[in-house]
Specification:
The complex is a heterodimer of chains A (519) and B (121). With 519 residues, chain A is an alpha+beta fold. Helices cover 49% and strands 25% of the residues of chain A. In chain A, helix 9 runs antiparallel to helix 10, helix 11 packs parallel to helix 12 and helix 12 packs antiparallel against helix 15. Helices cover 45% and strands 20% of the residues of chain B. Chain B contains 5 helices and 5 strands, in the order βαβαβαβαβα. Classes of the chains: A alpha+beta (519), B alpha/beta (121). The interface between A and B is medium-sized, with 25 and 21 residues.
Chain lengths: 519, 121
């Protein structure tokens, strides 16, 4: 009995020890599985969950009590994949790293990868499964960002490629532009906003006998040592920002026409471009032409004067009485001769057109004196036609203006002569000068007549070359139709304004304004 | 009787003006270029000079320049009879002291005489 009791006790002790060992092992396993960072659960052969670890709870949000006894597949989305898995595992096939979407307790969808291992007993019968779930969120995010990054990288590469292409195009354009600038027959200078010389093409090198490398990338102020170039720079300094075809005589055999303007793009001003055009040859030709016409006119006019004066002598009976038949013929001859004289005068006027365009010599002068001179000259012509030529004396002294005196004289003369020519006997021509400060500050000259006036439909064409109104032709056969055209050229060359008001049958008022240019 | 020196190279104009001026009661001396014109004015002391501009040997402008340098000749009134009438030329003529000027094709002999008469008023 004792022996039995002893045996039982011993047995019980052994069992207890085994139990203790078993408990230790369970704790060990529990600890171990709890520690495992991967979510794991045990599944019965009928595919319901019977155990989960801590990582599983953490990942799914379900407590053991809430999930144990439920089919594992309820945790996942994707019926078709799940069916496949179920089929596979029922045929004892392992599942490895199958991607699925896990739905947590909070209905959050998480990308996961699951693996399922098959548990068998000693007789190779299915005893259940282990299911492990790996959270792929971080990996997915990483992959996504990796994809984005790759895309970005590709995009950058594309951009770089585009830039490279653009660069090539730009370089090509630059080369083209450079070739153009280099081969241009005009001189080209470009100063940036800091007044640093950035373009100096070979033509400019020739004009100023300076090499590009001596001056490029230098400030204007550092260029004063180059005498001829400095002459241009000094000239530009005293000019407005924008100039168009201003003449500058650098030396006897170098006359340049200068155009200068600021270069702007959408974002602002880049600097100032100066274009130099050599007009030395044109000037020489112009001079030669003027001389030629002058001489030709002289050669033609001399014999014409001879004929005119002879016929005039005959007509005025200075050479004795003539019969009426003789007078009739001589008068016809005289008329024909007068026509030739008119043609020669027109020819001379054609050369005068050119004179209007360029100003040769600018002088600061009291314009009243210039006008007075012309009035005195024309007083005689007016008297001949019994026209009163009146100049309203000024109350105050006018400011001086910078003008090409010879040119302005032509302008005065043309307008006053027109007023006299196209006014009937006993008419009145009134001249005035005044200081104005409307759109331009300057001196306004005005000549008002009581003449034939200009029809409305003729007014537009008045300043065009060779235009003469039908009325003007009947009144004054001599005109060439160039006077107003020349005058307009002259006034515009002075940066002035010209205009008129006229009423047919009542008279016309012609005016121009010469600006007072402020330095 | 007023004495007029006509300096002109064109024969027909000389003939006409000489005839006209004599008819008007003037004494006329003729020179056919600038150099002999200067000689004649020194010798004859004319009351007025009718002066052409473009002439062989010496032109009218040079004649006027020479006259400016000479105290005795400086004050003789000059009437320029020119062909070109270009503003630049007219300006030069006026600066050299010409009393008046006329363009041959635009005047007739009678008007020349009137201009002369004006100078003697």
């Amino acid at each position: 009995m004792v022996k039995i009791l002893g045996y039982q006790l011993k047995h019980q002790q052994e069992i207890k020890k085994y139990q203790e060992d078993l408990d230790d092992l369970r704790l060990y396993i529990q600890d171990f599985t709890a520690f495992l960072p991967i979510a794991v659960c045990a599944i019965t052969p009928i595919q319901v969950i019977i155990d989960i670890n801590a990582a599983f709870e953490k990942l799914t949000g379900f407590k053991a009590l809430e999930i144990i006894g439920k089919p594992w597949n309820e945790l996942f989305l994707g019926e078709r994949e799940i069916e496949k898995i179920k089929e596979k595992i029922s045929q004892k096939t392992f599942i490895e790293s199958q991607e699925l979407i896990l739905v947590t307790k909070e209905k959050k969808q998480i990308p996961v990868s699951i693996s399922i291992s098959i548990r068998k007993d000693e007789e190779e019968n299915l005893s259940g499964y282990f299911l492990s779930i790996t959270d792929l969120t971080t990996l997915k995010k990483f992959q996504e960002s990796e994809i984005i990054r790759t895309k970005e990288r590709l995009a950058i590469l594309n951009i770089l490629e585009d830039i490279e292409n653009e660069k090539e195009i730009a370089q090509e354009e630059k080369n083209k532009l450079q070739a153009i600038v280099f081969n241009l027959s005009d001189g080209l200078l470009f100063f940036n906003n800091e007044n640093i010389l950035k373009i100096f093409n070979p033509q400019v090198e020739i004009y100023f006998e300076v090499k590009e490398r001596e001056v490029l990338n230098k400030k204007i102020s550092a260029l004063s040592g180059f005498y001829k170039l400095n002459f241009l720079l000094e000239f530009l300094r005293n000019q407005p920002e924008r100039i168009f075809r201003e003449e500058l005589k650098i030396e006897e055999n170098l006359i340049l026409e200068i155009t200068s303007f600021p270069v702007s793009i959408e974002t602002g001003t880049l600097g100032k471009l100066v274009i130099l055009h050599d007009i030395t040859r044109e000037k020489q030709i112009e001079k030669t032409k003027s001389e030629f016409v002058s001489i030709a006119a002289h050669q033609l006019r001399t014999p014409l004067s001879g004929i005119k004066w002879t016929l005039q002598m005959l007509l005025s009976n200075d050479l004795g009485e003539i019969t009426s038949e003789q007078r009739d013929f001589i008068e016809k001859g005289n008329k024909a001769n007068e026509r030739v004289i008119t043609i020669i005068n027109d020819l001379l006027n054609v050369t005068k057109i050119e004179e209007g365009r360029h100003l040769y010599k600018l002088t600061l002068i009291n314009i009243e004196d210039v006008l007075q001179e012309i009035i005195t000259l024309l007083q005689e012509v007016a008297q001949k036609k019994k026209i009163k030529l009146e100049f309203k004396a000024l109350k105050e002294k006018l400011p001086q203006v910078e003008i090409d005196v010879e040119k302005i004289k032509i302008a005065f003369q043309n307008l006053i002569e027109n007023a006299i020519h196209y006014t009937f006997e006993n008419g009145l021509v009134t001249i005035s000068l005044e200081y104005v400060k409307n759109e331009i500050e300057g001196i306004k000259f005005q000549v008002k007549d009581t003449g034939i006036g200009i029809a409305k439909n003729q007014q537009q064409r008045l300043f065009t070359k060779f235009f003469r109104s039908p009325k003007a032709i009947t009144m004054e056969t001599d005109g060439s139709g160039l006077g107003l055209f020349i005058t307009k050229n002259i006034i515009e060359a002075h940066k002035g304004k010209i205009g008129f008001e006229s009423e047919e049958g009542k008279g016309s008022t012609f005016w121009f304004i010469l600006p007072i240019l402020k330095q | 009787m007023k004495k007029i020196l006509l300096i002109e190279d064109e024969e027909i104009l000389i003939n006409i003006l000489e005839k006209k001026l004599i008819q008007e009661g003037y004494k006329v001396v003729v020179a056919r270029n600038g150099v002999s014109g200067l000689e004649e004015m020194r010798k004859n002391k004319p009351d007025l000079i009718l002066l052409d501009i473009i002439m062989p040997i010496m032109g009218g402008i040079e004649v006027m320049e020479e006259m400016q340098k000479d105290e005795e000749l400086k004050n003789i009134p000059i009437l320029v009879i020119s062909n070109s009438g270009q503003p630049i030329e007219i300006d030069r003529i006026q600066k050299l002291g010409a009393k008046d000027w006329l363009i041959k094709t635009e005047f007739n002999p009678q008007e020349v005489v009137e201009k002369i008469k004006k100078q003697f008023i």
